[in-house]
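Exercise: predict the fold of this chain.
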Amino acid sequence: MAGIEFLKADFQRQLDIGTWKMILQFARPYRNTMLLLGLFMIFVAGVDIVMPLLTKYAIDNFIVPVKSEGLFRFSILYFSIAIFQALNVGIFILLAGKVETGVSYAIRRDGFKKLQELSFSFYDKTPVGWLMARMTSDISKLSEIIAWGLVDLVWGSTLMAGIALVMLIMSWKLTLIILSIVPLLAWISRKFQVIILRSYRVVKKTNSRITASFNEGILSAVTTKTLVHEDNNFHEFEKLTNRMYSASFGAAVQSALYLPLVQLAAMIGTAMAVWFGRKGVISGDISYGLLVMFLSYTGFFFIPIQEVARVFAELQNAQASAERIVSLIRTEPELFDSPESVQPAGRLRGRIRFEDVSFGYVGGQAVLKHFNLTIDAGSTIALVGETGGGKTSIISLLCRFYEPNRGTIFIDDLDYTKIPLEFLHSNLGVILQTPHLFSGTILENIRYGKLTATVEEITEAAKSVYCHEFIAQLPDQYNTEITEGGTNISAGEKQLISLARAVLADPALLIMDEATSSVDTEAELLIQRAMEILVEGRTSIIIAHRLSTIRKADRIIVIEGGQIAEDGMHDDLIAKRGKYYQLYFHQFQDQAAIMTLQKRK
């Protein structure tokens, strides 16, 4: 058994025990089930140990002496043990399945919860494919190895120990000859473990990139076709798949060498048992039944060694998955509630103040520099300016998706880092250029703004933003299923649904990345009317791309190079003939001409 201890010590050196301790925490709710599973595996191993003993007894007492007395009772005993073993097998499969599905559920639950908690900066630097691979294939691999690895380890260890003990009692000389093969098996396992682990780490990493490539290819299908980049995308994907093929084939070759070598060592042990056992039978030192028992035990003994070695190899494979899952679970949000945070009484009023705020994304240049801005509660402001000027960064900071590198943002004269994140976000309503609709019905998508809303409240919210009219014309009305990405309704209809959702949420602060920039003229008019209702009585900040939105704002703020270039009302800024004037006539004059033509019609 010294070889097994050597294998175990090498296993501990090669695997990160701390990582596996954390992974095994997910199995704690099932520890009683796992103990019961281990007990049944001991029963299974015990029966496997007893069966060759029964064979020996049958050969020495019935077959060799050609006797039948007591054979019926022996047959009944043998049959009863076989039934007991069948029950053991059925129960351990059920218990192992319960552990596997339970652990998989627990890891997925905590992984998804962690993804909900992480800051936006995490998603900025983490590929989608990496996350998808972690939440699917890696979790499946870990739950499988925890459940079925336990089965093989308990069964294999018990069987090896039991067989070694029985063989030592029956013939210690023959036993030592057979066990001399174990150090060879340990050496083979030691050599292959490191190689296999390295290969599977490459496989896992490449698989993540392939998943990301699939995701990007699906999302960008229209763009790819319109730009005729199919061949280019295919060649890039082919490079990834070739790398995956090489790494996977290399791992397969290593496994193909490893297991046959283990089997070869086992066959050598069996051959040695036959050779030396034959001499014992001829000399009369051992019986025919004992030789057959030793041959059975030799085969049995090396099968669990192969299984334990396979589990060690799979643990090496799963180590890469465990490392990635643990790295995700251990990731801490960059933004969290301050110990000094206190939830304000009631809802926020909406007075906002940026005080000497500077901000830049990690690894990038400063976007905002000593930025100062005050917004009165209940007012509507429009942020305009060239792309890259800092408009979106102002919104991201206000929503506390990021925090300033320097300076402070106040909401209702409170440092907003002292306001609980959940409370702050519950007071925010964000309308994007391209709204996101979830899989489900229109009713469920609107209710997402207030999960406790009644059907009547949802209907009223839809009516208030002119959304009810088109919904009522659908065959299933509010029970109409939204397809993935909302492809079965128009862009304008999607935007109206998102506005109804915002009305239902009733936020204190409304933030809009121009809701009308990607819709037709008819839908734009409806959305504009809906927005007028939505901004009433709440602080609203709009990143403006349409002239109609700008003109109706209480203030227009021109952002340039992370600073406020101009601030005022439309007519006043036009009269100044400054930055806004130039922007107006370069960016908005075509829109103004279209609006004039529409009025004449």
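Check your answer against the key: The chain has three domains: 12-330, 352-427+510-526+536-601, 435-506.
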